[in-house]
Design brief:
CATH architecture of one domain: 3-Layer(aba) Sandwich
Shape: elongated
Helix content: 25-40%
Oligomer: single chain
Number of helices: 3
Strand order of the largest sheet: 1-2-3
Distance between the termini: 49 Å
């Protein structure tokens, strides 16, 4: 759950907010009532290998050179 906090309050309570963020809380920092930043916990990103297995296919010609008209478009020669 996100909590919005005024920038002045955030400055005076930064240490406590960082401790709470480490515990998993997120805060939106606002200036004059407008959200300007997010204070969120940093953590290791857990990646699951193979989540697209069977959902996409790489064509057999994937590593072959691009056709001239496609290459020209990438190089701005169209």
């Amino acid at each position: 759950m996100e909590n919005q906090i005024n920038i002045h309050e955030a400055k005076t309570q930064m240490s406590k907010l960082v401790d709470r963020a480490q515990s998993g809380e997120e805060f939106i920092i606002a200036k004059a009532g407008k959200p300007v930043a997010r204070l969120a916990p940093l953590g290791k990103v857990k990646r699951k290998l193979g989540i697209l297995n069977g959902k996409i296919q790489v064509p057999d010609n994937f590593n072959e050179p691009l056709p001239e008209e496609v290459l020209a478009g990438f190089e701005g020669r169209s």
